[in-house]
Specification:
alpha/beta; 14 helices; binds uridine-diphosphate-N-acetylglucosamine; UDP-n-acetylglucosamine1-carboxyvinyl-transferase, Chain; 25% strand; 4-stranded mixed β-sheet; 2 domains; 413 residues
């Protein structure tokens, strides 16, 4: 329940990145000893990943704010179907388990809220590295009886998940793997930083070409997960939509390189010093020209939905082009219930900013769409009831507490 139209103010510490935590938890499968992860957010998606670790025979628990993972006793090579269905991100266990066990059985992640999300690039790469893969009844069985070996892999699209799976398979493979057109997201760099400190030899993370020299073994280490740039972008959207002034703490401003200029174009001021951003929005936002979602370092698809909520109350017409996922405007229909004026044609959304949104009952049906509805409801006059909060909880840690600490009138029932 949100009673909107209140200004936000104050400081907020940004949580650790979900999209770093998930592949890093999978990577822990490759290490010997106890890993200590700091800044790991407590989220339902992270919980699924930890349940997978335990179902494989590993140990995982939070203690004193740190996440401890020990995979010495992993003996199981099958990921329970119920867990892969719960979270599409579980597909990163494919590469990690194949490398560790030489065999993995994993339920196909299938479609998701964002439309069909194939994993053909993952599977093609694993086959090039020596895996044999069969699929029966929606279950994948991958084996690498002769072990995995290094290969030259050119991705036709810089897929984040495929790049992660290749890296996870290659770190202990026999020989050198080269990925061209690799994804360059900061979360890929975080995964590689962790693996390199555990003893891996990965060169070029964050660039288009990544080279991995296989090593014999990896040892557990202590690692701090990077801040979540999408949560930061969501908080910027919330502040922008409500004409607020907030300070984001513990962020890496360069990870928001394509996001911050859009808010500046809309009239916001983002003053970054070190790991802090003082963010100040005008009384009424200006529209933004065209926002095109792209692989990093372009504008992130995950920030598209929250930003559409800010554009909905800006002066003038903003245009969004969603280039990454085919079905990522599901929140728009619900925003129209809040009074937004938005037209969609295929991958293009044309948003005519309105002066005011009004509280309504709306339903979230995906993670970032849920964040967009919360953002829009914060800006709307009157009370909104948002259902489908479980989507929000996949990626935002105690979001209602964060927002109420900034002065929002929000409560979770
Ligand atoms: C990851 C993020 C997600 C983010 C996305 C793009 C995690 C857990 N999720 O998802 O939040 O929105 O990156 O930044 O980190 N594709 C194929 N074949 C494949 C793989 C991908 O066609 O084998 C397509 C997808 O359908 C999609 C596009 O490539 O259209 C991008 O997908 P990808 O980069 O793989 O995203 P994910 O890793 O699934």
């Amino acid at each position: 329940m949100i009673n909107g139209s209140k200004r936000l103010s104050g400081d907020v510490e940004v949580q650790g990145a979900k999209n770093s935590a998930l592949p890093i938890i999978a990577a822990a499968v490759l290490t010997k000893g106890e890993n200590v992860f700091h800044n790991c957010p407590s989220l339902s998606d992270v919980d699924v990943a930890l349940r997978i670790i335990r179902s494989l025979g590993g140990k995982a628990r939070f203690s004193g704010g740190a996440l401890l993972i020990n995979c010495d006793d992993i003996h199981n090579d099958s990921v329970p179907d119920a867990l892969t269905r719960e979270m599409r991100g579980s597909v990163v266990f494919l590469g990690a388990l194949l490398a560790r066990m030489g065999r993995v059985v994993l339920g196909l992640p299938g479609g998701c809220e964002l439309g069909a999300r194939p994993i053909d690039l993952h599977l093609r790469a694993l086959r090039l590295m020596g895996a044999e893969i069969s699929e029966r009844g929606g279950v994948l069985e991958c084996t690498a009886d002769g072990g995995l070996f290094g290969a030259d892999i050119a991705l036709s699209f810089p897929s984040v998940g495929a790049t992660e799976n290749i890296i996870l398979s290659a770190v202990t493979a026999d020989g050198t793997t080269t990925i061209t057109n690799a994804a360059r997201e900061p979360e890929i760099c975080d995964l590689c930083d962790y693996l390199n400190s555990a003893g891996a030899k990965i060169y070029g993370a964050g660039e288009g070409t990544v080279v991995i020299d296989g090593v014999k073994s990896l040892s557990a280490v202590s690692h701090t997960i990077i801040p979540d740039r999408i949560v930061a972008a969501t908080l910027m959207s919330a502040a922008a939509a409500t004409g607020s002034r907030i300070t984001l703490k513990g962020i890496i401003p360069s990870h928001l390189g394509a996001v911050t200029p859009v808010f500046e174009e809309m009239g916001c001021i983002a003053d970054c010093r070190g790991t802090e951003m003082r963010f100040c929005a005008p009384e009424r936002l200006r529209h933004t020209e065209v926002v095109r979602t792209m692989p990093y370092p372009g504008f992130p698809t995950d920030a598209q939905a929250p930003l559409t909520a800010a554009a909905a109350v800006a002066k003038g017409t903003s245009v969004f082009v969603e280039n990454i996922f085919e079905s990522r405007y599901k929140h728009i229909g619900e925003m129209i219930r809040l009074g937004a004026d938005i037209k969609i044609q295929d991958r293009v959304a044309v948003i005519n900013g309105v002066k005011r949104l009004y509280g309504a009952r709306v339903r979230a049906c995906d993670l970032r769409g849920a964040a967009a509805l919360v953002t829009a409801a914060l800006a709307a006059e009157g009370e909104s009831e948002i259902s489908g909060v479980r989507y929000l909880e996949r990626g935002y840690e105690d979001f209602e507490l964060t927002l109420s600490s900034l002065g929002a009138d929000i409560k979770k029932l």
